[in-house]
Amino acid sequence: MRILKRRITRGFVCSLLTVLFSLAATAQEEHGSSGHGTPGTGTEKFNASAFIIDHVTDSHEWHILTTPKGKSVAIYLPVILYSREKGLDVFSSKKLAHGHVFKGYRLEEEGDLKGKIVNVSETGVADTENRPLDFSVTKTVVGMLFAAIVGLWIFLSLARSYRKTGISHPKGIQGFLEPVILFIRDDVAIPNIGEHKYEKYMPYLLSVFTFILLNNLIGLIPFPPPFGGNVTGNVGVTFVLALCTFLITQFSGNKAHWKHVFAAPGVPFWLLPIMIPVELIGLISKPFALMIRLFANITAGHIIVLSLICLIFIFDSVWVAPVSILFVVFMDCIELLVAFLQAYIFTLLSSLFIGMATAEEHH
């Protein structure tokens, strides 16, 4: 046991040091290639806000490093665009890097449309009103696909293991995943949905818990790609997850659920014109809270960690590094807890909303 504890401790320390050195190296690259002056000379003013925003927002490329000569090394992702005039266009985002125009398209690098692809006329004027439909593979898309593939592999391996051994003492991957599945079933689904109805919703609850948890954990590792993506810190991703919970809840709602919305028991008839809009707003506010809670907590954690790293380069002093690194280690531990906690809270509230919509009316 002592040897095992030592190995776990060493592995945890090595992981933290890897995270810190990766973040510091990335920040140093940004320090050497942003601001004013000649890139790579180290005399430029470090732009902390731009560095942080670039890491928490989505992108058409996966930046790896910047050479001392100022050359950017990145993985350029596919761009997939459709417009009525030009039809379907598929090409590498490298064609649009550094403000280049390709096939009449340009990737905006500043302004309200920063990070968006717009049509550009022959004179170089951007058409911001008639933008093409963008189905591009971005950092967020790659992160989601990676998490989905990992989750699929985990559960397929678990199913294969159960087919071989049957219902027996858990071994291998069973011993790791079975407590998680039982936790979602016994402590989340059954108490909130009910013992007779929970099985119908277990696939969704287990899938959303695993998907959010994997993306949260993957986002804590800054390197190499596809690690480091801020997937659950993207409001579009959390919106779709909350929308799934909303649709499942409403389509599962029974007669008692809709009666409570449009004819709340015990409410005078003359108050119904006021209560019905309030209840309808309540239906929307619940998934809205799910969306904002997950997005805000994950994004805030990334911003805090990156801000602490940036302090070293803002003060431009090596004496700040020990204090900054100490706080980053502490925040990484907190973020690890938040990764599990936010996946649990989203799943718990989803099951609670479903349970409220499917609960039978008690007399």
Q: Could you explain the architecture of this structure?
A:
This protein folds into two domains: 78-134, no CATH class; 139-358, no CATH class. Helices cover 59% and strands 10% of the residues. It has nine helices and nine strands. Strands 5-6-7-8 form a four-stranded antiparallel beta sheet, with no helix packed on it. A three-stranded antiparallel beta sheet has the order 4-3-9, with no helix packed on it. The protein has a two-stranded antiparallel ribbon with strand order 1-2. Helix 2 packs across helix 8. Residues 1-5 and 7-43 have low confidence and may be disordered.
In the residues, how many domains can be counted? 2
Distance between the termini: 56 Å
Q: Count the helices. How many?
A: 9
Q: Structural class of the secondary structure composition?
A: alpha+beta
Number of E strands: 9
- Taken from the alpha-carbon principal axes, the silhouette is globular
Provide mean pLDDT, rounded.
Answer: 81
Bin the strand percentage. Answer: 5-15%
**Looking across the biggest beta sheet, what order are the strands in?**
5-6-7-8
Record the SSE blueprint.
Layout: H1 2-31, H2 48-56, E1 61-66, E2 72-76, E3 78-83, E4 87-92, E5 101-102, E6 105-107, E7 117-120, E8 126-127, E9 133-134, H3 139-165, H4 173-193, H5 202-220, H6 235-252, H7 255-262, H8 272-315, H9 321-358
Antiparallel strand pairs: 1-2, 3-4, 3-9, 5-6, 6-7, 7-8
